[in-house]
Amino acid sequence: QGGSFDVADRMFHSVKSTWESASRDNMSDVRELTPEFFYLPEFLTNANHFELGCMQDGTVLGDVQLPPWADGDPHKFIFLHRQALESDYVSAHLHQWIDLIFGHKQQGSAAVEAVNTYHPYFYGDKMDLNNIKDPLIKSTILGFISNFGQIPKQV
């Protein structure tokens, strides 16, 4: 972000508020869990005491606010996430996630039915950047891709 931290209100600061935004409140919030959620408790703490800013509501950013079941302990949070990932429930339903991300529910009518659709810019196989001549449109699309990523190829 130009050599400085992003605006405080846009930074990851709370598991609860991030979950509520991505799962319910903001249909354009396309965040995903990164591998760090399953092995690296340190990413949840501001061990170097960086000044991360203050949100509009006055909240000063520091360590990530964890859900109550983690008891404020990043190690417990990661441990329980790993247990959930390795649970029988996840093993029995992992194929459904694969269908959404890589399979038949990634595009088309199955994706619409699963509420799993995105702006056409995010589908790499639908956009041929070489054919876009307008530099403003091309840079806008590249900006979207750079900031939000692309949908993986369907298998």
TrEMBL record:
Residues 1-155 form the BEACH domain. The keyword Repeat applies. Keywords: Repeat, WD repeat. SUPFAM superfamilies: BEACH domain. The keyword Lyase does not apply. One of its GO terms (biological process) is antigen processing and presentation. InterPro entries: BEACH_dom, BEACH_dom_sf, BEACH_domain_protein. PANTHER family: BLUE CHEESE, WD REPEAT- AND FYVE DOMAIN-CONTAINING PROTEIN 4. This is WDFY4 protein. The gene is Wdfy4_0.
